[in-house]
Design a protein that fits this description.
This protein has 70 residues and is mainly α. Helices cover 67% and strands 0% of the residues. It has four helices and no strands. Helix 2 packs across helix 3 and helix 3 runs antiparallel to helix 4. It is globular. The termini are far apart.
């Protein structure tokens, strides 16, 4: 269950992770978010990070995704 998996995310970034997953789902026309959608959102996001040439930017991108960076 996606809600159960979200609870594994630290509370201080959980809301941002939830919103980003909801945006990801809405962009794809998914009306009910399940665990597959949650994992797909994570995979797509991590894929974007792995495509970056500058490894130094990755922690900043991850921090922005979870809402702890400007």
């Amino acid at each position: 269950d996606a809600e159960k998996e979200l609870k594994k995310i630290p509370f201080f970034v959980r809301g941002k992770a939830r919103r980003n997953t909801e945006i990801f789902a809405a962009e794809r026309g998914v009306h009910q978010i399940g665990i597959d959608t949650l994992y797909e959102a994570i995979i797509v996001f991590l894929g974007k990070l792995s495509q970056r040439e500058l490894v130094a930017e990755q922690p900043q991108e991850l921090a922005r995704f979870v809402g702890i960076a400007n």
